[in-house]
Design brief:
This protein is α/β, with parallel strands linked by helices. The chain is built from nine helices and seven strands. The chain has a single domain, classed as 3-Layer(aba) Sandwich (Rossmann fold). The longest helix has 25 residues.
Length: about 270
């Protein structure tokens, strides 16, 4: 596998763009992420005290489900700014409470000392500029404001028994690493938050255990579909292996260890 990873990088041109949400399949995958993870994000934000009147920033809007939910929670006098290169799934919700801005994430330079809550999910670990972006997000917090970052950690996936699911997961894991995604970055964030002066830093990982036919299974199936053309081109998987993987993820009697949705939060010291 190590030798394969070393030869992947040059063959993955356009790979990350194809994993976006612009296609119908990409849209379905974003909706599956919402079904898989929104309840976790809601709980974490509620624990931080999101309320009417807060000013919030969401970095990467995906399907738009979290931006909409945040705007409901801070209305009528609060404000949510959501930023993403592709805002097509949330643009219709823009209004007095929700501002939608189409912009690349690496170019984001939010105003300093502005937000009560800044959030990003499954976004920064894909970007080479992630460390610099965290510094900018910390600087954008009001005194007393909270930063909540959520990323996927993949170690729990490898607890699955040997079979089609694990075989495909191993290939996809190697591909995302070769493409530059920092799959183990989340575990470094508590120390980063402390280094940048945040207080009340805390972290948790919620490991998903799921059956076929659920939103989490659909997320994995659709992610596999987006990886398949590249895996086929590099002869990493056979069609038979991939079809077995997809079939298992539709089976309600099949159960899997899923990824761990790692959340880290910290608060800017009061003035």
């Amino acid at each position: 596998m190590t030798a394969q990873v070393e030869t992947m990088e040059a063959k993955l041109q356009g790979y990350k763009q194809d994993l976006g949400g612009s296609s119908a399949q990409g849209r379905q995958r974003l909706l599956a992420i919402a079904g898989m993870a929104d309840h976790i994000t809601h709980r974490r934000m509620e624990g931080l005290g999101i309320q009417e009147g807060w000013r919030c920033l969401e970095v990467g809007c995906g399907s738009g489900s979290i931006a909409r939910w945040m705007s409901y929670r801070v209305a009528p006098h609060g404000h949510v700014l959501t930023v993403d290169p592709d805002t097509q799934y949330v643009a219709d919700a823009a209004g007095a409470t929700l501002e939608v801005r189409q912009q690349t994430i690496p170019s984001l330079r939010p105003p300093e000392k502005t937000f009560d809550l800044v959030h990003s999910r499954m976004e920064l670990q894909q970007l080479p500029e992630r460390e610099e972006l965290v510094e900018r997000l910390v600087a954008s917090l009001k005194p007393g404001g909270w930063l909540l970052l959520e990323e996927l950690e993949t170690f729990s996936l490898f607890q699955n028994d040997t079979g089609p699911f694990l075989q495909v997961v191993e290939i996809m894991h190697a591909m995302v690493r070769a493409a530059g995604t920092a799959v183990d970055w989340a575990r470094t964030l508590p120390r980063t938050f402390q280094r940048l002066g945040l207080r009340n830093v805390n972290a948790e990982g919620e490991m998903l255990f799921f059956s076929g036919g659920t939103p989490t299974a659909e997320f994995h199936r659709l992610t596999g579909e987006q990886h398949w053309p590249y895996a086929e081109k590099m002869r990493l998987l056979t069609r038979e292996q991939f079809d077995q993987y997809s079939a298992s993820l539709r089976d309600p009697n099949a159960w899997f260890y899923g990824p761990t949705i790692f959340g880290v939060w910290g608060q800017r010291p009061p003035a």
